[in-house]
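lol ok so funny story. i was supposed to be doing the assay writeup but got distracted and ended up predicting the structure for this chain instead. priorities right. anyway since i did it might as well share w the group, maybe its usefull for someone
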Amino acid sequence: MGYLERTVDIELDELLRIAPAVALDGPKGVGKTGTALRRATVSWLLDDPAQRALVEADPAFAGAPPGTLLVDEWQRLPEVWDSVRRRVDEGAPPGRFLLTGSATPARGVDTHSGAGRILSLRMRPMALHERGAVVPVVSLASLLTGTQGALQGSTAFGAADYFAAIEASGFPGIGRQPARLRRGLLDAYLGRVIDRDLPEHGLSVRRPETLRRWLQAFAAASSTTTAYSRILDATTGGDGSQPAKTTTIAYRDHLSALWLLDPVPGWSPSRNPLSRLQQAPKHQLADPALAARLLGHSAASLASAGGAAMAGPLFESLATLTVRVAAQAAEGRVGHLRTRNGDHEVDLVVEGVDGAVLGIEVKLSATVGDRDVRHLLWMREQLPHAVVDLVVLTTGTRAYRRQDGVAVVPLALLGP
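and the output, tada:
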């Protein structure tokens, strides 16, 4: 199978022209190595003991040839980070170092922050527009800058196609496999996290079934701000046993370090601050397919009455992944807005580097009514000089703009 271009490719090429060192971070299997190898003059894959030994023998990279040096899975030899930082301080040229990592170093490993020397770039699972099945015609960057112009375009994608995309996964090595193999690979991925990755990261999982129950409860809370105490309550086993709060905090911290939890933070504007905003994060796993697999959902079950409760939240998870990938390329930060008493909420808010704000609602429907845009219109009233556009992402077939100015965009038509 050929390489599918990623939005992060554009970012990486831009940054390597100006930055001496770039770290590409993200969960295992997201495609970091494949993307990085396309740009490397020479590479060391540190999950190979022989190649790790070569770096250990020359930590200053004195014998390395000119060009871009890739150190893959750098966290397996954390001193690499400080060595690269020192080379940057000594005047390394742009594009000299490319680091990839699928975990932050375990606690107790001392590394300098690298602030001001090493740029960090997040690589997430493939957004919908990156998977080769859709051709986006609406640019998030243009919406954020107010330059999108007339909305047009249509797609044959419908609800069943979005459910299939949720099930399929954004991990490139999984998403393009036959359905039976995909399910096995997702199960193996989750099993590896519990049985190998977490122990390697310093967390001893004494009762794997308890961690799996917690992951299932977290998956069930996708796209919500459910309190962690309620997620803990939902982890109670059939025998009435429940893990300690300290145990689940350790789960959360270590899974975050492996880039598998990807919460959407509560948003507050950098200018003209709104009062009474709730700052609790919206829960998301790195890939909606992981949540669906943990909960036993397939494309068919999400389309049925039995899967209706999770169909909307998982569609929002897919939309969130797509928006985040596109927003990162536009240098936008993504959050969600919710007032403390819950009377107003906006699913996703993208804020640009200049303070421009794009409000986004996600709706598992092909139609949009006045009630669906009321929170967006409220936000525009509160921040009239900051909000540049408002969008509802749907499962419809056509992009258009309502009379109140709100853009209605099928998710399949949204790209960077």
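Residues 302 and 310 are 7 Å apart (CA to CA). The domain at 7-122 is CATH 3.40.50.300 (Rossmann fold).
back to the writeup now i swear
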